[in-house]
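Priority: medium. Attachment 1 of 2:
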């Protein structure tokens, strides 16, 4: 499976990195490493996660984030990587 990360998801990752980097540069780097490991796992497990708001949702293992993606043939397209602590209405708005 090929994993493609859209620019909006990369922006989400950068926003999360900056948030955690305020608490220590190494924590921001660790956030990115952990989330990219979760995204890389989609090469094997894409399509197995529950559908939420019309997207598959994979919960990150080490941080309160969700990876929203869709499967199209042999491609997994990551649309957003969103903080689970935000209001659900913001999540639905971000996925439109």
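Attachment 2 of 2:
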């Amino acid at each position: 499976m090929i994993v493609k990360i859209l620019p909006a998801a990369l922006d989400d990752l950068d926003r999360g990195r900056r948030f955690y980097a305020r608490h220590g540069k190494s924590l921001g780097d660790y956030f990115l490493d952990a989330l990219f490991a979760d995204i890389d796992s989609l090469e094997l497990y894409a399509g197995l996660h529950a559908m939420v708001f019309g997207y598959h949702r994979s919960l990150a293992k080490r941080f309160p984030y969700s990876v929203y993606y869709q499967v199209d043939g042999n491609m997994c397209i990551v649309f957003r990587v969103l903080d689970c602590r935000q209001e659900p209405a913001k999540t639905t708005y971000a996925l439109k």
